[in-house]
């Protein structure tokens, strides 16, 4: 008898392929990677890869969609965590920064390989990014409206807050002397300064 | 007679190749670009390209070195512009942000294709980046020592300030509704908040 809760062998193979694709894209970029590279890293033949995925673009799309959905969920969870915009911002910036430090390898692909997506996939991912942007902008605007934040340009502040978090994936190094938690807690302090938190 | 001040035809050709390389790298990434693409964009044969440059890596190195030297010069000029660390920071952040918005195409290559450099070239470029990092860190530390800035972690603040500027090259769009000057002036305000400028 097989346990229905146990992932099927096909699921495990797909997961192994996604992991191999993340490693290959992060090392050589999407355009520098061949499906052969990915198949080899996953320990299978190129023909076996095509049983599971039609193209390397499909792999990129799966990685990108999972990354963006996870980030959007994280942002919404942070916002739902409190009624106070300052607490919401603390929560969102902490988790966003920690994620981009901890998962910098996949976050780099998610953020820097958008141009390699097919037009349809890019539209889908752009819509997810816009939802993340809107959540952050609404959060800053709510804070200003509630008298908790004081910033002359909530829209630009929201762009800068997300930008700071995303760029962690570019500069963070596992052996750089800072843990993801170090970065996250300092970034919370800086975020509250950027929006002009009132005591 | 030829005018010695006039750039030679070889110089003009090299400049055209660099411009074509920036366009090609920014469109398809370094690994996705062939020397044939670059030669075609510059209106010459691949063989003619090799007369001027040994490889596409050499082109990337020239683009990267020019970009980093220009940025380091800009940072040092901003620091030399005043005795007051707050004025220095205003100047540096303004010019750094405006540059990454205005020249976002080349700034993206300069910042996101480092892994494609040869080991020797990467060492050279890394040394330039470290000088930029040190200038920014020293500036924030001088401001704290002078009682002008108030930040619990000058090193992390300096990383965040450069990170904010660099990431502009990723998100800025010429048709996005903001001019490079809009971004630069808002980023100066946010930078002064990050370092905790004292009135």
Describe, in short, the structure shown:
Two copies of one chain form a homodimer. The first copy, chain A, is mostly helical and about 200 residues long.
Describe the structure.
- The structure is a homodimer of 199-residue chains.
- Chain A is mainly alpha-helical and 199 residues long.
- Helices cover 75% and strands 0% of the residues of chain A.
- In chain A, helix 4 packs parallel to helix 7, helix 5 packs parallel to helix 8 and helix 7 crosses helix 8.
- The model of chain A has no long low-confidence stretch (mean pLDDT 93).
- At the A-B interface, helix 1, helix 8 and helix 9 of A face helix 8 and helix 9 of B.
Mean pLDDT of chain A: 93
Series of secondary-structure elements of chain A, N-terminal to C-terminal: HHHHHHHHH
For the largest beta-sheet of chain A, the strand count, sense and barrel status come to: none
Helical element count of chain A?
9
Report the β-strand fraction of chain A as a percent range: under 5%
Biggest chain-to-chain interface with counts? A-B, 33 and 34 residues
Low-confidence stretches of chain A: none
The CATH topology label of the largest domain in chain A is Tetracycline Repressor, domain 2
CATH architecture type of the largest domain in chain A: Orthogonal Bundle
Distance between the termini of chain A: 62 Å
